[in-house]
Each structure stands twice: as structure tokens, then as C-alpha cells.
Amino acid sequence: QMQFTESGGGLVQPGGSLRLSCEASGFNLNSYTVGWFHQAPGKDREGVACFSSTGRSIYYLDSVKGRFTISKDNAKNTAYLQMNDLKPEDTGVYYCAAPPAWVTHLQATCYMGRLDQFDYWGQGTQVNVSA
User: What's the CA gap between 16 and 105, in Å, rounded?
Assistant: First the structure.
């Protein structure tokens, strides 16, 4: 059974930092493309960062470039999203997700426009950025 356990959200002031964690169980996360998605209140879910299974394709949403960093820790089977210089518009729920192995093109590339192709999702963790 493929399963994610997310943590690390919380309340921070603008300019602050958080590190979100996404622990994978039942599979080797390093063999899968992993994406982080953000859903602001009342808004559509949007991909913010992606790390392909091969490492040859990495994606960041323009609004988070230079502020967010996606990474993996093989020993802990965990993906991370380091978020720096947080802004109020970063507020919302953050989800990690992975496509199933049979979606082979997403194992080699980071394309986040098809949310339906990311079958495995964490429960989400809430981030509030407010003064």
C-alpha cells in the first residue's frame, strides 16, 4: 500500500520559513516523481514544485522560485519542501503527491498540469502565513 504522511505545517509570520515533510510508506519514494501542490482557500489546487524520479526534471512555480526547494532523503524515504521568505499568499493546504508507476512519462518529467495523473496524495498540511 502506497501511503504518505505529511507534517511540518503551522503558523508563521511573513518572511518566515517552514519545512514540510512527506514520508512515504509501502514504496520507495526515490523511484517515483514527487510533487508538492498548494491549495489556497477557495482556490484550485496548483503544483508548486516537482522532482522527477530520475532527477533530470525539476519544476518550480514562478511565484516560489528562489524561495522553495524540493528535496528527498533516501534513508528516511521522505520528501521535503523547504519554504523560505513566506508570503501571505502562500497560505493554504500543501499536499505531496506521486503518479503511479504506469504513468511512465511522469517518472521522467515534471508535468503538473494533470492533477488526475497524480494518484497518490498525502492528507495535506495547513500553512498559515500572517502577521
Answer: 36
